[in-house]
């Protein structure tokens, strides 16, 4: 069972302290410049709400704002990453036998490599798998009420597609890809209907080795 958290909404439709993520999410969804953060207990949450957002600004911004204000933020030639591995996070990856070919993706705990989810399709591409893995991770963490837990991916393309809210694949729709495209459509709808709160970081393969979610087929 997920550990209970308390959610502070400083700027949203109805600012306050919430005990359920679904109710807190309603206050920030569609609210430009929403400021919010989770806390492990009610006392901390109420104190933070009273004190105001200024002391928690970097943590409280949505992922887009967080990327813009973070010292490791994206520039013209870089993507968001971390100086060292955040063990309290999850990692995602995809593998494809041929491209296109049989494709699968998974999400694991970065520390321990415990599998959290996995999907396989008879025909797909690696980029599609990376995109679906990221969206699956975001939706999974939302259901687990962990809106702050970081996600690692080794795909810049998938990160770009997430920012755009669109899977920019050229793979044709066909009977073989019917199930895959159903997942793509659902993923794009989720991105449209939900606010991304979890930070998404680029895994530094050159420095850290293969991402923990790697399928080991290289």
Can you walk me through this structure?
The protein has 8 helices and 8 strands, in the order E-E-H-E-H-H-H-E-E-E-H-E-H-H-E-H. The strands form 2 sheets. The protein has a 5-stranded mixed sheet with strand order 6-5-4-7-8, covered by helices on one side. The chain has a 3-stranded antiparallel sheet with strand order 2-1-3, with helices on both faces. Residues about 55-75 have low confidence and may be disordered. Strand 1 (about 5-10) and strand 2 (about 15-20) form a beta hairpin. It is about 35% helix and about 20% strand. It is globular. It is an alpha/beta fold.
SSE inventory with pairings:
Elements (H helix, E strand, L loop, with lengths): L5 E6 L4 E3 L2 H8 L6 E5 L2 H10 L5 H4 L2 H7 L20 E9 L2 E9 L5 E10 L1 H18 L7 E3 L2 H9 L13 H16 L6 E3 L2 H4 L10
Parallel strand pairs: 4-7, 7-8
Antiparallel strand pairs: 1-2, 1-3, 4-5, 5-6
Average of per-residue pLDDT values: 86
Number of helices: 8
Task: Supply Rg.
Answer: 18 Å
Helix content: 25-40%
Give the overall shape, derived from the CA principal axes: globular
- How many individual β-strands? 8
Strand arrangement, major sheet: 6-5-4-7-8
> What class do helices, strands and sheet pairing give?
alpha/beta
Oligomer: single chain
